[in-house]
From TrEMBL:
Lineage of the species this protein comes from: Bacteria, Bacillati, Actinomycetota, Actinomycetes, Streptosporangiales
PANTHER family, alphabetized: ABC TRANSPORTER ATP-BINDING PROTEIN
Principal localisation: membrane
SMART domains the UniProt entry points to: AAA
Residue span(s) of domain ABC transporter: 4-216
Membrane topology: Peripheral membrane protein
Taxonomic superkingdom: Bacteria
Compartments where located: Cell membrane
SUPFAM superfamilies: P-loop containing nucleoside triphosphate hydrolases
UniProt keyword Iron present: no
The UniProt record lists the keyword Transport: yes
Record key words, sorted: Antibiotic resistance, ATP-binding, Nucleotide-binding, Transport
Annotated protein name in UniProt: ABC transporter domain-containing protein
Organism: Actinomadura keratinilytica
Length: 216
């Protein structure tokens, strides 16, 4: 089953189309990477797919729902390159605070386990590595039982070991049925995905509508 369906998507800023006639689908549990250079339109496309930006043409469906019109009906979460900053709080305090305003949250231990952060509950946010901070953002998204993740450059600014760790978590989540759409500028990072769509000047030049392995 396709969880993310993007058809003929266009997003415009003023006179300029940042995303032009983009179509692709992502199956349940699949990891799809949007690869493109600076300014290719990756973030804009992610924002539209996550329902944070209204398209000027085409359609987006996530689990059959228009994410812009009915964002609250979806269990989908976004992780941005500039993630949360939680100075003065431990990992457990950040997660507990987040749980308080999340409807029907996972347990703190469950979200931390899924994000690969078990055992770090008492560590102050300032002492986390950059990779652990990224994973804490993932844990906060997972608290809401999200099974669709949108990530913008998940390993940007991370060292190789931290990048490995983040992708280990993403692959483990995918194996449990979580669908992942990740934007990246790095071909090496894109290769970790099940499928890659190459975005150039707003157009998907490869990786658009086609049969994908998990749907076959
Ligand atoms: N809010 C905005 N207003 C006007 N133009 C914008 C806005 N956001 C993005 N753009 C333009 O849209 C195009 C695509 O930008 P976008 O940020 O989506 O690219 P990107 O592939 O994510 O780039 P990067 O790798 O640098 O993050 C660029 O030309 C950018 O300047």
């Amino acid at each position: 089953m396709d969880v993310i369906e993007v058809r003929g998507l266009r997003v415009r800023f003023g006179e300029r189309d940042a995303v032009r006639d983009v179509s692709f689908t992502v199956a349940r549990g699949e990891v799809y990477a949007l690869l493109g250079r600076h300014g290719a339109g990756k973030t804009t496309l992610l924002e539209a797919a996550a329902g944070l930006r209204r398209p000027c043409g085409g359609t987006v469906r996530v689990c059959g729902i228009d994410p812009y019109e009915r964002r609250g009906a979806l269990r989908a979460g976004t992780v941005w390159r500039d993630g949360g900053l939680f100075p003065g709080l431990t990992v457990a305090e950040v997660v507990d605070a987040w749980r308080r305003w999340t409807l029907d949250p996972l347990t703190a231990a469950g979200a931390l386990r899924l994000a690969g952060l078990s055992g770090l509950e008492d560590v102050p946010f300032e002492r986390l590595t950059p990779g652990e901070r990224r994973l804490l953002d993932v844990a906060l998204v997972l608290l809401a039982r999200s099974d669709v993740l949108f990530l913008d450059e998940p390993t940007a600014d991370l060292g190789e070991a931290s990048g490995e760790r983040v992708w280990g978590v993403l692959r483990a989540l995918s194996a449990q049925g979580v669908t992942v759409l990740a934007a990246t500028r790095a071909p090496d990072e894109a290769r970790r995905a099940d499928r890659v769509g190459i975005l150039d000047d707003g157009r998907l030049v490869t990786g658009g509508d086609q049969t994908h392995p998990k749907a076959a």
